[in-house]
Amino acid sequence: MQWKGSATLTAAVRRARQRVPYCFLSLIVRKNWISTMTSSGMLFPCILIFSLLTALNISVTWYNVKLLQQLLPIGREYTYLGDDYPSQLPLKLPSVGLVLESGAPHFSLYDDGEWGTLFPSDGFTDLGPNNRTFLLSMIHQMHCLDVIRVGYVVNRTGAAQHIQHCLRYMRQVVLCHADTTLEADNPVFIGGRWEHAGSGLGSVHRCKDWTMVRRYLLDHPAADIEQ
User: Fold this and answer.
1) Within a 10 A sphere around the Cβ of 139, how many other Cβ atoms?
2) How far is the C-alpha of 213 from the C-alpha of 140, rounded, in Å?
């Protein structure tokens, strides 16, 4: 018994054959399409057409990738002469989290030893073909904190000018980083009234992995200046 819509289906297939290769219609209409194409001699042409389409697709994809690569910025080469050097250390740093803690009893005002561990290679490293020496800002900032600490502890003569430089420097660094981490309000009762206050403890800051910077400086210290 024939399906009542077979005449309509046959007419539709006939029209479609005028536009679509027979091998693809065989996939759609016939169940035993492999044996059908083999017996009709269409298997090889179908494989050939499929291979050509695949190759064309790969070629177009490769062309698009090459075209996009041309649009990407090319890594600049620096001479490290004069002002021709990068603004950042050429080291990719992953983002890490830092939970603020009290830190006690470490890094007290009087612990010169622990503060001294913050300055691998004194913060200087050599870059470029001629080994030009640079100071890393992170270590400069740590140095300024240490200068303020030492100036407070010993109240040495001449420390005021150095401390003033460091305070101005650190003020600008804080503005530069503009850390927008939210710190919980912990109100305190002062002078008979409640006032907003915050210790910052427990706040999670998004940071760069400073341990990688430390390892880099230890592995790439600046050469001594020839006397």
Assistant:
1) 20
2) 13
Tokens of 105: 């009893």
Task: Write out the two tokens for 214.
Answer: 């430390």
Strands (DSSP E) contained in the chain are 95-99, 124-127, 132-135, 188-190, 193-195, 204-208
Q: Tell me the two tokens of residue 178.
A: 């503009």
100 CB contacts (<8 Å, ≥6 apart)? 200, 201, 202, 203, 205
- Encode the chain (227 residues) as per-residue pLDDT tens digits: 444 445 555 555 455 455 445 555 454 445 555 565 556 566 667 777 878 888 888 888 888 887 777 776 667 888 999 888 988 898 888 898 888 888 888 888 889 999 999 888 888 999 999 999 999 989 998 999 998 898 888 876 678 888 889 989 999 988 888 888 888 888 999 999 999 988 888 889 999 999 999 999 999 999 998 88
- 168-206 b/e with 16+ CB inside 10 Å = b? ebbeeeeeeeeeeeeeeeeeeeeeeeeeeeeeeeeeeee
Domains of the chain: which residue ranges?
8-71, 95-186+198-219
CB distance 22 to 44 below 8 Å: no
